[in-house]
Amino acid sequence: MKNIFVVYLLLSFQFVFAQTKSEDAEFLEERYINYKVSEDGIDTKGRMKSMKKAINRIALARDTSAIDVLLDIYIGYDATDNDVKELAYVTLFKFKPELMPKLAMRISQAELKYGIQRNTHLDYMDLLALKKKLEN
């Protein structure tokens, strides 16, 4: 019962603070998060260039509505493939005051989702590493 209340509280919190996504945030979500496998693959130079441009525009506009999408990119992308993950981190760092509550909520959601096995899930570990990196 306690877990249900916590999930309800987290979802309510997320609903209250939800923002309308910008065009760049929607572009990134469509191109990266909701990407469907096709012949050209996700890592083409053109696709990566488009993602970088969108992240740069988000940073310049201080578009905090894109924080969730940037978190998804940071967590889900391997930095050895290209520098999109690092660019997402630099942009997230600029949004640190707005990011920290959302990051805490993501960590709480991951703890509820994965339970005692959370330390074996890379996305949870990436969230903790990001939090530690931001706190230093």
Keywords, separated by commas or semicolons:
136 residues, mainly alpha, single chain
How would you portray this structure in words?
This protein has about 140 residues and is an all-alpha fold. It has one domain (about 1-135). It is about 70% helix and about 0% strand. It contains 7 helices and no strands. The chain has helices spanning about 1-15, 25-35, 45-60, 65-75, 85-95, 95-115, 120-135. The protein starts with a helix and ends with a helix. About 20% of the residues are buried. Mean pLDDT is about 80; it is low at about 15-20.
Task: Describe how the helices and strands are arranged.
Layout: H1 2-16, H2 23-33, H3 45-61, H4 67-76, H5 84-94, H6 96-114, H7 122-135
Helix pairs in contact: 1-6, 2-3, 2-4, 3-5, 4-5, 6-7
In short:
The protein is an all-alpha fold and 136 residues long. It contains seven helices and no strands. It has helices at 2-16, 23-33, 45-61, 67-76, 84-94, 96-114, 122-135.
Structural class by helix and strand composition: mainly alpha
Number of domains: 1
Q: Considering DSSP H and I runs of 4 or more, what fraction of the residues is helical?
A: over 70%
Tally of helical segments: 7
- Measured by DSSP, the beta-strand proportion falls in under 5%
Over the alpha carbons, how many angstroms does the gyration radius reach? 15 Å
